[in-house]
Amino acid sequence: MSTTSTDILVVGGGPAGTATALRLARAGHAVILLERRAGSWDRARGDLHVPPAVAEFDDLGVLPTPDASDGHAAHELKGVRTWVGDRSVALPWPNHHAPPALVWPRSSLDAALRAAALAAGVQVRLGTEAVSPIVERGFVRGAVVRRTDLAGDEPTPATGLGVAAETEAIRCRFLVIADGARSRFGRSLGTHRDRRWPSTVSAAAYFASDRHGDRWADTMLGLPGPDGEPITGHGWFHPMGDGRVSVGVNVSSSYRDVLGINVLKLLNHFTHSHADRWQITPGAPLTEPARMRTPAGGSINPTMGPTFLVVGDAAGMANPLTGHGTHNALVTARLCAEVLSEALNVGNSTTLQRYPALVADELAEYEKVARLAVRFLGRPAVLRAALRFGITNERVMGAGLRIATQQLRTSPSGERGGTERLYRTAARVASFLPSW
Q1: At which of 331, 350, 365 does a domain end?
Q2: Domain tally for the chain?
Q3: Which uninterrupted H or E stretch holds 372?
């Protein structure tokens, strides 16, 4: 078996892993990035990026030009139309956030991040999977990797590892786990999900639509379940500006009857219910519907070992209220790169102990408030009351949108509006409650 050495080995080439690798390479460190898929993944998922996520893209220098004609464009949105039944409220993005929200297909986003990483000097290895960690005296010192040459999402049934073309040992000083929600590599090093905490189940597909150029996304709350009760979750239509619209549904695990929900059937019913308004042919998706289960709310631990850190969905960092994970993934990537760069520069691995505290400073309070919110909204009586009250009050719906999408106003003077005061009250209450 051949052996390669590097400063940092990043396992997983999604947004969190690639952003971490990019930042570390720009800081002057040698980085190898592994991604088990050999080709692009043109499936609907996580295509809407709210303003805070777009700000992270901008900080990375990978912000696309909206509606460019290069085949990798992003579509700019003015806001969200939020629906409950046949009533809606149009909610523009808060004007205190400079960047707009973008619908940026995951395949194009991955390509843009990967191109920036390559330009920064990251050694990107596509079609390569980390099979097992190299552990010496309790310290992770790298990984045994194997060529998979997978163009799709699933491994081959014969081996579970794809087509084995080459095996290699990659040794490193530090390792980053970024292999997504299922995180097989993370589990091999002892990461685990607290099943009391929320997760989300979603299904989405792309459809052709004459309304692809719409500047407003639609979010439908209170989708009816099999018993007619509203589901804790939402459905969406995200116009993409390229002839397509992304259509999906998301269900929280806090919903009382979540085990009775077939999310693919829910998506099918949802697309048929709104097909005329969005001018789609519900039985003719452009892509096979993609189903995903995503841990949320910081539900996976530990996020740190003596020589490794965990980022993004592998750390369960998705937003419990929306199911979106890109913004928090990019935040963890930024903090991870900061800590590892310092550790490499000073030659002291104890610096890694700062990482959980830095993540907690930026995300823990919000994640706890969101976890508790979805737990209470999982009760049908509470959800029905919240929906009836919210849809009649535009200010309440606007506050809900800003909290759900992490767009609270930050002012050096400490000035806060009604939404910020509402959130601070919820945070104070949550501080006295269990960390569900």
Answers
A1: 365
A2: 2
A3: helix 365-377
Cis peptide before 302 (omega within 30 of 0): yes
Asked if residue 381 is part of any domain, the answer here is: no
Among 376, 193, 386, 212, CA closest to 300: 193
Distance, CA of 279 to CA of 287 (rounded, Å):
17
What are the residues whose beta carbons fall under 8 Å from the beta carbon of 265, sequence distance 6 or more? Answer: none
Tens digits of residue pLDDT in 32-67: 999 998 877 677 876 899 999 999 999 999 987 655
Whether residue 291 contacts residue 181, with contact meaning beta carbons closer than 8 Å, is answered with: no
Task: Answer whether residue 118 shows pLDDT above 50.
Answer: yes
Query: Distance of alpha carbon 418 from its chain centroid, rounded?
Result: 28
**For position 163, what pLDDT does the model report?**
36
CATH number, domain at 258? 3.30.9.90
Share of the chain above pLDDT 70, in %: 91
Residue identified by tokens 């999310």 is 263
Residue 413 is classified by DSSP as T
Specify if 173 maps to a domain: yes
Same domain, 83 and 112: no
Residues 190 and 201 in one domain: no
345-396 residue pLDDT tens: 998 889 999 999 999 999 999 999 999 999 989 988 899 899 988 888 888 8
In this structure, is residue 408 part of a structural domain? no
Q: Of 224-228, 245-249, 284-288, where does mean pLDDT reach its minimum?
A: 224-228
- By residue range, what is the domain housing residue 287? 74-105+195-295
DSSP state letters, 46-97: S-EE-HHHHHHHHHHT-PPPBT-SSS--BEEE-EEEEEETTEEEEEEPPTT-
Pairwise CA distance, residues 380 & 231, whole Å: 8
Please list, in sequence order, all residues whose beta carbon lies within 8 angstroms of the beta carbon of residue 224, skipping any fewer than 6 positions away: 230, 231
Over residues 288-294, the mean pLDDT reads 91
Please state the pTM of the whole predicted model.
Answer: 0.92
